[in-house]
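Worked example 2:
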Amino acid sequence: MTHFSWSLDGRLVGATLLAARVVGLRVRKYVGKVAPFLMNGRMAGAAAYNLTEGVEFRQVLRISRLGRQCADLHGIYAADKMIGVYSPLDVVFCVLGLEAYQCKGYKAEDAEAVGINLAVYFSTLK
């Protein structure tokens, strides 16, 4: 079992954010207000899942995410263009539908929906 350690992991996160800043990238905490189409599933020429409400989480997150039933997506920007999106919550393992102690992520159906929205979004970019 691994836990987040500020002394080790915090330095790694800080160094990564600093390196991103040096090369001109910014990380925006929540993309829902900047790219609402990514969250509501209504993209140019395609439709996907609505991730703004009713998203379900694994047992370890249910209480801490009470009242915030939307996907947690963060954007990576170069100037004003979004060049990447990630979720600080687990998506890949959760898609498998397996249970793991302290797995902080989405339920399997919603993990698939997050992945599909990301795939549809990046496939509709010009």
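The beta strands are 25-28, 42-43, 46-47, 74-78, 81-86. Helices lie at 6-22, 36-40, 59-62, 92-95, 108-123.
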